[in-house]
Design brief:
This protein is an alpha+beta fold and 255 residues long. It has two domains: 3-199, BirA Bifunctional Protein, domain 2 (2-Layer Sandwich); 208-250, SH3 type barrels, CATH 2.30.30. The protein contains six helices and twelve strands. The chain has helices at residues 3-6, 29-38, 88-102, 159-163, 169-183, 191-199; strands spanning 19-26, 45-52, 70-77, 109-111, 115-118, 121-130, 135-142, 208-213, 216-225, 231-235, 238-242, 246-250. Helix 3 crosses helix 5 (169-183). The longest helix is centred in the middle third of the chain and has 15 residues, at 88-102. It is globular and about 55 Å long. Biotin is lined by residues 28-30, 52, 55-58, 61, 63, 72-74, 115, 125-127, 138-140.
Length: 255
């Protein structure tokens, strides 16, 4: 089925505030949304592409989604909340994906800040980028991906692999966007409530982890997530509160 037809019946399932545009191919849905934002597109504009020729992940890594099997989409938001709070959209997006996928039969964990995991493997990545007066929430979800290249097979999974059944991509998209519409508005007054939902899914809490903070690598014990959404890490420097970190890994007894 061509993508426009596949997603044509989704309208009534989307939040009223969102409008979906389906493209066969773009460079990156984040770039396409940025162009639309610069041309005054409205808050709630969503672009989904069946194929991205330059899809990207965090730290400039490539993000490759097989056409017809995954979801690659970006949402334009023009938050009314102060810009200092916009980084919280990343946690909101990861949580929304986790909740959306749970409606399709899998229990999801959140690997802070915003990877979604099922049984220790990544099923979704989120890339939030900010413009002057807008933010872009880019989301890639492995829906009906049957296999992964050898180098990813130990660390990536899909809804198909977890449930044993192909899933309706349009239904999965609608489930995620409905949760996102709620969670994206909880980055200010309702943040504590949102954080409780993140904490209950945090796969790092209670684990020995390694990560790269802005000023260098760390190894420590994850004590959970603080009131500002920061990772609480106890290590040789005492308790640290990290608002940002890369390459977060759970250490096993053997690592
Ligand atoms: C990551 O885990 O590194 C983030 C991956 C984000 C991928 C999505 S796919 C849709 C949107 N467009 C992009 O180019 N990237 C994001």
């Amino acid at each position: 089925m061509n993508p426009a037809a596949e997603f044509s019946s989704i309208g009534s399932l989307l939040p009223d505030s969102m409008r979906l545009f389906v493209r066969d191919e773009v460079d990156s849905t984040n770039d396409e949304i940025r162009r639309l934002a610069m041309a005054s597109a409205a808050d709630g504009t969503v672009v989904l592409a069946d194929k991205q020729t330059a899809g990207r992940g965090r730290r400039g890594a490539a993000w490759v989604c097989p056409p017809g099997q995954a979801l690659a989409f970006s949402v334009l938001v023009r938050p009314s909340e102060p810009k200092a709070l916009w980084p919280r959209l990343a946690l909101a997006a990861g949580l929304a994906v986790a909740e959306g996928l749970e409606a399709h039969g899998v229990a999801c964990g959140i690997k802070w800040p915003n990877d979604v995991w099922v049984d220790g493997k990544k099923i979704c990545g989120v890339l939030v980028e900010a413009g002057n007066d807008f933010a872009i929430i880019g989301i890639g979800v492995n829906v009906n991906v049957p296999t992964f290249p050898e180098e990813l097979s130990g660390s990536a999974t899909s809804l198909l692999l977890e449930t044993g059944e192909p899933q309706d991509r349009a239904g999965v998209l609608a489930s995620i966007l409905r949760r996102l519409e709620i969670r994206r508005h909880q980055i200010d007054a309702d943040y504590a409530r949102m954080l409780d939902a993140v904490r209950s899914r945090c796969v790092l809490t209670g684990q020995r982890i390694s990560l790269h903070a802005a000023d260098g690598p760390r190894v420590g014990f994850c004590e959970g997530i603080g009131a500002g959404g920061e990772l609480l890490l106890s290590g040789p420097n005492g308790l640290e509160r990290l608002l940002q970190a890369d390459e977060v890994r759970i250490l096993t007894d053997h690592s």
